[in-house]
Amino acid sequence: MNGPVVVGVDGSPSSLTAVEVAAREAGLRGVGLRLVHAFGWPAALVPPGRPWEPSGAGLRELIDGTLTKAERRAHEAAPGIEVMREVVVGEPVMVLEIESRTASLTVVGSRGLNRFGALLLGSTAGHLSSHAACPVLVVRGRPSQDGPVLLAVDGSPAARGAVEFAFAQASLHGTDLIALHAWNPQGERAYDGPSDPPFVTYDEDRLRDEEQRLLAEALGGLGEKYPDVTVHRRLARGRIRHTLIEASADAGLVVVGARGRGGFTGLLLGSVSQALLHHAHCPVAVVRTGEE
Q1: pLDDT tens digits for 113-170?
Q2: Cα–Cα distance between 18 and 283 in angstroms, integer?
Q3: Are 134 and 32 in contact (CB under 8 A)?
Q4: By the 8 A CB rule, do 150 and 248 touch?
Q5: pLDDT tens, position by position, 67-114
Q6: Is 38 exposed, middle or buried (0-12, 13-18, 19+ CB in 10 A)?
Q7: pTM for this entry
Q8: How remote is the C-alpha of 206 from its chain's centroid?
Q9: Is pLDDT above 80 for 274?
Q10: What is each CA distance from 235 to 160, 175, 278, in whole angstroms?
Q11: What is the mean pLDDT of the chain?
């Protein structure tokens, strides 16, 4: 998609950092940057989704000042990009969801002010990640994005979009891609048949071979599409949350799908997603497919 990069702006330090990241992403993609401030005007007075037309000059100056500061930070991070400003009536998550329909990427900070404050700490995060029409990049930890792209591979068809996004990001940033598949020998693929009890003896060598094949199949065809990207395939035996968080310490970006199978089921609605959003050492990109 050639749409702009959209970033939620509320004036908080976190959102200003997100603006810088979003500006660099827009510059790499050769698209514009759209600064969006969601204004919670009373619904009885103005229909949601309408452009902002304030009656209070003081409020106008406050919000204009916030956007002016954000625009200045954007130009400092990526000189020459086109920057658009928009103040929209509505809840931040709904406004950003609507904006995502014409965006190539939506960027948000990990902390905010006022209505943006709970963006990544409650149901709002799951809603945006589950319903946005484009990838969502959550800026947390080290925002510089120095380091390789870390892709969480689970092998599910729904995660194909995340795999493609990770390759594209590595290509754009000129960095390596680490494709990490965490597996547990006591997981659902550990047994010979569906009727086997959990204490059955399993063949760990066979399981490792199967997980290696799953990892290879998940990356199939994209190495040829992105020949400039060096891919490092890694199998990690252990707990998924701990493995991903630990690996993120050396990454510039973690990329995950919005749905998965096995340990990744319900990724953004359960403990794995919450662990990443709260504890990853670098930004996290969530990519969903249109079928989800």
Answers
A1: 544 444 443 345 556 777 889 999 989 887 677 899 999 988 777 788 999 999 999 9
A2: 10
A3: no
A4: yes
A5: 999 999 999 999 999 999 998 888 888 889 999 999 999 998 876 554
A6: buried
A7: 0.83
A8: 33
A9: no
A10: 18, 20, 24
A11: 79
Paired with 36 in beta bridges are: 8, 86
Looking at residue 282, its pLDDT comes to: 94
The CA-atom distances, in angstroms, between 201 and each of 31, 86, 92, 204, 285 are: 55, 60, 51, 9, 38
